[in-house]
Amino acid sequence: MARAINRLTARQVQTITKPGRHADGDGLYLVVDPGGAKRWALLIAVRGRRRELGLGSVRTLDLAKARQAAREARDAIRRGDDPKAPREPPPTFAEAAKAMIEAVSPGWRGRNTKAHWERSLLTYAKDLAFVPIDLIKTDDVVRVVRAYWTSHPETGRKLRQRIEALLDYASVRDWRDGELKNPARLKGHIAKLLPRQPTGVKHRRAIPYADAPAVMALLADKATGAARAMEWTILTAARETMTTEARRREIVGDVWIVPAHRMKEDDRGDFHIPLSAQALEVLAAASRGDEKPGDLLFPGARGGIMSNMAMDMLLRRLKIDATPHGFRSTFSDWVGDETDHPREIREAALHHIVGDDAERAYRRGDALKKRRRLMQDWADYIRPRRPAAEPAPPDE
Questions:
Q1: 10 Å Cβ neighbour count for 342?
Q2: Residue-wise pLDDT tens digits, 27-51
Q3: Tell me, what's the pLDDT at 265?
């Protein structure tokens, strides 16, 4: 017959005065000393030897806390630890995130996966950085996830998933109570506290192409890395992450060669983007002059990959109702409405798939030349080149 547990009540703990041990069950005892002092003790067996483990005074541990301390001591014994040995405090959220990423990242396939996890857990969740990992609660998770949940749905989804994975990792490492529900779990838990995310295709906000030259003028007045990155993104019609992850070794002459593994469609090989004269000027303006091949073209404020919110926030501060990705639509509209460049060249510049394999193979030979003319025309439209100064007349 199983022994009864939780025999004592909080009232009894306060009123018992008889000296001796008073069993709560499963080895936990309220000990009343002859002088009347009360303390908690746990009778345990460590490596076959019976020992009494003092848990603390009734003044500092009520009945619920004493039972919790007893559970933790028994868990330590099951792990083979000595419950009397001092235990290091759990790490902070940021410390735990770094430890998990370091432990599991060698098995990740994508070259930038580690950077993406670091961005989620160390940048987007920075408000939790110094909170001990065992104290992270549902409200903490909701607070950091809500900031992106509807405005940047994909970012919000990945942030929640990565926090959930981190908290699971912390439980396995015994930094959190593994019996507690993961506060970042979506179904049946955090989903009840967050608004519904937008469904279906969400078109990125774009400005009319007639306004693009004014935007470029505003950006030219800003001496920040985000402004140079935004200019580059617009001039090359690139996706935002293509810009933030671009490195010096990808620039070969006046061509930007984006490696296949960084492209959305990574089965189509490296993507060659011809650079206009204006794009090369932006590159020169962003250069310090001592860069190494592996250096980022547009590093973030701390030297790592620029946050994918940096350009969005810049546009908001400039009161431009568009997203960085939306300028690809602006570029596409301008090509279709204002130029005679073929549709397939426009789609090739956007790295969209047009036609069957045979048709694409036929075009491959001269597409770069045609795209070079297209990208220079686009650059001349949004940032006209200054006319060359006329030579001074000869002295009489």
A1: 15
A2: 888 888 877 788 888 887 765 667 7
A3: 57
Across 225-299, where does the E strand assignment appear? 251-252, 255-258, 271-274
The alpha carbons of the chain give a radius of gyration, in whole angstroms, of: 31
Q: Is 229 exposed, middle or buried (0-12, 13-18, 19+ CB in 10 A)?
A: buried
The shares of helix, strand and coil residues in the chain, as percent rounded to the nearest 5, are: 50, 10, 40
- Residue tagged 């774009």 (tokens): 206
Can you point out the beta strands (E) in the chain? 20-25, 28-32, 38-46, 49-57, 251-252, 255-258, 271-274
Residues forming CATH 1.10.150.130 domain(s) in the chain: 93-192
> What is the structure's pLDDT at 111?
61
* CATH fit for domain 209-382, picks 1.20.120.80, 1.10.443.10, 1.10.10.10, 2.70.70.10: 1.10.443.10
Distance CA 311, CA 298 (A): 11
User: Could you report the per-residue pLDDT of 110-124, keeping only the tens digit for each?
Assistant: 666 788 899 889 988
Give residue-wise pLDDT tens across range 277-312.
999 999 999 888 788 888 899 998 788 888 878 899
Mean pLDDT over the full length of the chain: 82
Residue 85, beta-bridge partner list: none
Domain 93-192 CATH (choose: 1.10.3720.10, 1.10.150.130, 3.30.390.50, 3.40.630.30)? 1.10.150.130
Does residue 214 carry a pLDDT above 90? yes
Q: Looking at the predicted structure, is the pLDDT value of residue 219 above 90?
A: yes
Strand pairing class (255-258; 251-252): antiparallel
- CATH 3.30.160.390 location in the chain: 10-79
Residue 325, φ and ψ in degrees, nearest 5? -65, -30
The Cα 58–Cα 39 span in angstroms is: 5
Indicate the class that CATH gives domain 10-79.
Answer: alpha beta
Centre a 10 Å sphere on the Cβ of residue 205 and count the other Cβ atoms it contains: 14
Residues of the chain with CATH 1.10.443.10: 209-382
Angle at CA 323, nearest 5°, toward 318 and 324? 95
pTM over 0.85: no
Tokens, residue 35: 């002088």
C-alpha–C-alpha distance, residues 298 and 286, integer Å = 7
